Amino acid sequence: MKRSLEVTWEDPVALAEAGRRLPGIEFLRAICDGKLPPPPIAALLGFTLVEVEPGRAVFEVTPGERHYNPIGVVHGGLAMTLLDSCMGCAVQTHMPAGSGYTTLEAKTNLVRAITGDTGKLRAIGKTLHVGKRMATAEGRLEDASGKLYAHGTTTCIILS
After folding, report:
1. How buried is 95 (Cβ within 10 angstroms: 0-12 exposed, 13-18 middle, 19+ buried)?
2. What whole-number distance in Å separates Cα of residue 141 and Cα of residue 123?
3. What does the alpha-carbon distance between residue 91 and residue 72 come to, in Å, rounded to a whole number?
4. How many helices (H) and strands (E) does the chain have?
5. Cα–Cα distances in Å, from 61 out to 7, 40, 52, 109?
6. What is the rounded (10 degree) CA torsion for 83, 131, 50, 68?
7. pLDDT tens string for the chain (160 positions)?
8. Residue 160: its pLDDT value, please?
9. Hey, is 46 helix, strand or coil?
10. Is 80 helix (H, G, I), strand (E, B) or coil?
11. Are the beta carbons of 121 and 141 closer than 8 angstroms?
12. Are 135 and 127 in contact (CB under 8 A)?
């Protein structure tokens, strides 16, 4: 039985331009509050930025069949993408207007299988260190009861 999914998004170039005009935390809060649209990757995978504060960003997703790999569980790339997003956005909360960052290195540990029965997951990113040229952060992917599904760390390079 075939399934389908329609995905729509807004112009990512306009979103990136808005991001360069705002301090990172204000940009992320505008997305979280619905004043700016989410990026296309969030629409494609079905995740949402739900919390932003200095050094912290939280995304939520309800995994489902559309995220499955050929062996019948959610593809690890969903967990990796969520962790990259929450950790990177935690770093972004420290960025002044006109500057940015990009992931230089990321490490993910997948500790249990995710399925359509898992329920809502939260990806929680927190900065560990923010310097002039480099930042590090950690992330956790948990269910509503706090059960861990994946965790990771990242190193980001700061671009002025």
Report:
1. buried
2. 4
3. 34
4. 4, 6
5. 15, 15, 16, 18
6. -10
7. 999 999 999 999 999 999 999 999 999 999 999 999 999 999 999 999 999 999 999 999 999 999 999 999 999 999 999 999 999 999 999 999 999 999 999 999 999 999 999 999 999 999 999 999 999 999 999 999 999 999 999 999 999 8
8. 80
9. coil
10. helix
11. yes
12. yes
Task: Tell me the β-bridge partners of 110.
Answer: 150
In the chain, the amino acid numbered 30 is A
Residue type, 124: I
SS3 59: strand
SS3 state of residue 81: helix
From 90, 4, 99, select the one nearest 52 (Cα to Cα): 90
DSSP code of 66? Answer: G
Alpha carbon separation from 93 to 26, 54, 72, 90 (Å, rounded): 8, 6, 36, 5
Residues 6+ apart with CB under 8 A from 140: 123, 124, 148, 150, 151
> What is the secondary structure of 97-156 as a DSSP string?
TT-EEEEEEEEEEE-S---TTS--EEEEEEEEEE-SSEEEEEEEEEETT--EEEEEEEEE
